[in-house]
Design a protein that fits this description.
Elements (H helix, E strand, L loop, with lengths): L8 H11 L3 H15 L9 H8 L3 H14 L14 E5 L3 H12 L3 E6 L9 E3 L2 H9 L2 H4 L10 E3 H14 L3 E4 L2 E6 L8 E5 L12 E4 L12 E5 L4 E8 L4 H4 L4 E5 L4 H11 L3 E8 L2 E8 L1 H6 L10 H4 L7 H15 L19 E5 L2 E5 L3 E6 L2 E7 L14 H20 L4 H15 L32 H7 L5 E2 L5 H15 L18 H10 L14 H16 L7 H6 L5 H16 L24 H10 L17 E4 L2 E4 L17 E5 L12 E5 H4 L2 H7 L10
Parallel strand pairs: 1-2, 1-8, 2-5, 8-17, 16-18
Antiparallel strand pairs: 3-4, 6-7, 9-15, 10-13, 10-14, 11-12, 12-13, 16-17, 19-20, 21-22
Helix pairs in contact: 1-2, 2-8, 5-8, 5-14, 14-15, 15-16, 18-19
Length: about 725
């Protein structure tokens, strides 16, 4: 019940705000509270302090105490770390809202956009201990009295969104619902980066920002980011939500934190014999709804008529046209009733936003993971830091309950990156550190992260037990920009044209050199040599070069550029000379680095970051082939396993090391590994197989053991990541 203190209506409004159970009501009561207190909610820099000052209400003071404790952490520098930054956050899911809170605490102006008008996701999330601790520190118990009471370690997505929405608004985040993001608007004139929105006339369309965080969900990835698919053998998940009337009879029904076939075969055999339902596992949580999630066997679904026709393709198999909704509902109903011993009276489906029973069937073995977590775009001198959080960064494997836990880790990591950005750290260093942290995300578990939850903050060192923030160096990350990171010229035609004109200007007059594009004009290697000769004529003798000896010319240019300017090649000489489809963006990046290096004052001596500036002893003379090969290998990365040179276009990076894609295989079974789908096992000492490094990389499924599975209540799915 709201307070009836008629002498101060803002107290009653505050109570209504705290107790609100819908997104619309939260926003409505918040707006009314601001009106009554005569506070401008868009005055983000002073809003929270003015609210505390004007709302002198004992029920609010316990909340202020919690928020003040969080805001007082040294990382936020009293809300001044990002005081000059403006941030746009896309998506009001738990991770989007949690990100907005951290950015607001850092002092940034934060605008959050959400396409939906309401929060309607009933599914229940498993919470790791640190997540519970974190949410309690934001007033979760104040906003939702039943939050993780007793031994409960879960909460519905809807309730979690409401908790975080309320905290966001109190901290000055500007939240807009019913707004669709259609893309970024490039800077023009005096305007910086903006968003293209629907409706076009929405006030947020004029908001200019220098930080963009996407929490738009698993299938939404902004331009410039790439996703990798992690697919295993088919595993079909079913979720179902039933109305919770909160009766005494319902309260007495025990939850099921995880029943797996391998640990309770009789239960599943009885389920099959009595109902025809064949499951691998089942989980039951009580929250706003009675929530069930289970893994069903395809044969059982076909036999029960849930799936109409068998297909080898998972998308066809589980397509709406191939699913009988009534049979699916009955399947979920029977499984729920049997697993609770029929003790839940009058089971009735909760409804989804479309007004239909809240039952869903999906293939959870197809998951996506972004290749990189961050990037920087620059146009007209205006930089934009972009980052991913939530499911559009890493889709969770739901039986492990990792979604919101790793999601919040990524939120804190992103906030730490934005903090560095706001403090003026060079953007390559900011990005390199973020990607170093991202390498660890998919391997985090409650067991291998810090247990000192009270010390958790946005600084990664307080959360990850063993972390090397420099496992990826800025110069290494610079090379990786080829594919995914900083769009230097790839964003615009004008950028390409500007670079092309620069190349043409400085190669004009050289025989057999005619630069017309960023592909075929460079195959002979003479254009690269001409650029070197133009700026450093003593380094190369153009008269000695033969147009037909393409590999030699390219190799010579690569060697000089790496040795003298610290610019490693992005591909092998043979790839550039013989490829019919030269990677344009790769070459653009390479030439951009050349232009930037030659644009430095002549007094600046450029060294590769790994070179020692102290002159080395003169090596003994070597034969021509040996000298050429040695020059190419000097100061460059080599494959961790085969020790041969690995070029950017054929390499991947993990744990701060580089590999040929073909070499990045499981140490035990030989299967090619995928980023995010392996675990890194660092052992020491002797006794490892000859030629085998003591540090091993394994597929996740190679290392899951019965103890781990039993602890999480899981059934093992053979070949999950094959």
């Amino acid at each position: 019940m709201a307070s009836q203190d008629s002498s101060n209506p803002s107290h009653a409004t505050f109570d209504l705000f705290v107790q609100a159970q819908s997104c619309q009501d939260v926003k409505l009561h918040f707006a009314e509270l601001c009106r009554q207190l005569e506070i401008n909610s868009k005055d983000f820099r002073n809003f929270y302090n003015k609210l505390k000052e004007k709302l002198n209400y004992w029920k609010a003071k316990t909340l202020w105490t919690k928020l003040d404790k969080r805001a007082s952490h040294a990382d936020y520098q009293q809300g001044k770390a990002c005081k000059n930054n403006k941030c746009l956050v896309l998506g009001a899911g738990p991770c989007g809202l949690r990100t907005a809170i951290e950015l607001a605490l850092l002092g940034a102006q934060v605008v959050l956009l959400e396409k939906r008008e309401s929060f309607s996701r009933n599914n229940v999330l498993h919470l790791w201990p640190y997540t519970i601790y974190d949410l309690r520190g934001l007033g979760a118990k104040k906003f939702y009295g039943k939050f993780c009471s007793g031994a409960l370690d879960h909460v519905s997505i809807r309730q979690l969104q409401l908790i975080l929405l309320k905290a966001s608004l109190l901290l000055g985040v500007e939240v807009h619902t019913g707004v669709e993001f259609e893309g970024l608007v490039d800077p023009s004139g005096e305007n910086g980066w903006m968003a293209k929105l629907q409706p076009r006339t929405h006030p947020a369309a004029s908001f200019q920002f220098d930080v963009f965080v996407s929490a738009g969900g698993g299938r939404f990835v902004p331009d410039g980011f790439k996703h990798k698919e992690l697919r295993g053998q088919l595993a079909i998940g079913i979720t179902a939500n039933f109305i919770n009337r909160n009766t005494a009879a319902e309260a007495q029904v025990a939850e099921i934190s995880g029943v797996a076939r391998i640990y309770n075969q009789k239960f599943f055999q009885d389920l099959l014999s009595q109902t025809g339902i064949d499951l691998e596992n089942i989980v039951y949580y009580k929250d706003d709804t009675h929530y069930f999630v289970m893994t069903a066997k395809k044969k059982s679904l076909l036999k029960k008529g849930v799936i109409k026709q068998d297909f080898s393709n998972a998308e066809q198999l589980l397509a709406a046209a191939n699913t009988d909704e009534e049979a699916l509902n009955q399947y979920a109903y029977d499984a729920a009733s049997f697993s609770t011993g029929g003790k839940l009276p009058d089971l009735q489906f909760a409804l989804n936003p479309n007004g239909k029973p809240d039952v869903a069937m999906f293939d959870f073995t197809c998951m996506y993971r972004a290749e990189n977590a961050s990037m920087v775009r620059e146009k007209r001198g205006k930089k934009l830091l972009m980052s991913l959080v939530g499911d559009c960064l890493v889709e969770p494997f739901w039986p492990l309950g990792t979604g919101i836990a790793r999601g919040f880790f990524a939120v804190f990591d992103t906030a730490w990156m934005v903090r560095s950005w706001g403090l003026g750290v060079p953007h390559l260093k900011v990005l390199a550190e973020r990607e170093s942290i991202y390498q660890l995300l998919s391997q985090t578990t409650p067991e291998n992260t810090s247990k000192n939850y009270a010390a958790y903050c946005i600084n990664p060192k307080t959360r990850y037990c063993r972390i090397n923030l420099s496992s990826i160096q800025p110069h290494q990350y610079c090379v990786n920009l080829v594919r995914v990171c900083v769009c230097v010229y790839a964003d615009s035609v004008s950028g390409f044209e500007e670079l092309l004109k620069w190349c043409q200007k400085h190669t004009r007059g050289y025989e057999m050199v005619d630069v017309k594009d960023f592909t075929q004009s460079w195959r002979s290697g003479l254009a690269l040599c001409a650029l070197i000769h133009h700026f450093r004529p003593k380094l190369i003798d153009m008269s000695s070069l033969d147009e037909s000896d393409m590999i030699h010319n390219i190799q010579l240019a690569f060697s000089i550029l790496e040795k003298e300017l610290g610019i490693p090649p992005v591909m092998s000489p043979s790839d550039l000379a013989n490829s019919d489809h030269i990677d344009k963006l790769s070459l653009v990046l390479y030439i951009t680095q050349i232009r930037n290096a030659f644009s430095l004052p002549s007094s600046v001596h450029i060294l590769h970051p790994e070179l020692n500036p102290t002159p080395a002893a003169t090596p003994p003379p070597a034969s021509e082939p040996e000298s050429r090969g040695a020059a190419l290998m000097a100061n460059s990365e080599e494959c961790y396993f085969c020790h041969l040179r690995v070029y950017v276009l054929e390499r991947i990076s993990a744990e701060g090391k580089f590999f040929h894609r073909s070499c990045f295989t499981c140490h035990r079974c030989g299967i090619t590994l995928r980023l995010g789908g392996y675990t890194y096992d660092q052992t020491t000492g002797e006794g490892h197989e000859h030629g085998r490094p003591p540090r091993e990389f394994h597929l996740i499924h190679c290392l899951i053991n019965l103890f781990s599975a039993q602890k999480h209540g899981l059934s093992l799915i053979p070949g999950l990541f094959k």
